[in-house]
Amino acid sequence: MAIPSNQDRKPETLHAQPLMTEETFANLGAPDLAYIRPVQTPEGLAWGIYSANGTQLGFAPERDLAFAAAVQNDLLPVSVQ
């Protein structure tokens, strides 16, 4: 009796549909995380504070202040590059 090789096997599709919707994926980490990233404003560089789904929550003139604002609002700040 011959043992089938891996070459004879057809690839299996484990997940035909996404495991989560785009909206669910976008909200991962919400409402506990605040994403901090640099943003260009007419006045110069500032630091944007965003929710997990991309909604801007605020901004600060300095990175440390953006992190402090997030913590002050019971959010865990993380950097986005």
Quick summary:
The protein is of the alpha+beta class. It has helices at 22-26, 63-72; strands spanning 33-41, 44-50, 56-60, 76-79.
Relative strand content:
25-35%
Number of helices: 2
Mean pLDDT: 84
In the predicted model, the low-confidence regions spanning at least 5 consecutive residues are none
Sheet bearing the most strands, described? 4 strands, mixed
Order of helices and strands: HEEEHE
Shape: elongated
Strand sequence of the main sheet, in spatial order? Answer: 3-2-1-4
User: How many strand units?
Assistant: 4
Sheet/helix structural class: alpha+beta
Integer-rounded radius of gyration: 22 Å
Rounded to the nearest angstrom, the distance between the terminal CA atoms is 57 Å
Percent helix: 10-25%
Topology:
Blueprint: H1 22-26, E1 33-41, E2 44-50, E3 56-60, H2 63-72, E4 76-79
Parallel strand pairs: 1-4
Antiparallel strand pairs: 1-2, 2-3
How would you describe this structure to a colleague?
19% of the residues lie in helices and 31% in strands. It is of the alpha+beta class and 81 residues long. Strands 3-2-1-4 form a four-stranded mixed sheet, with helices on one face. The model has no long low-confidence stretch (mean pLDDT 84).
Task: Jot down its keywords.
81 residues, four-stranded mixed beta sheet, alpha+beta, 2 helices
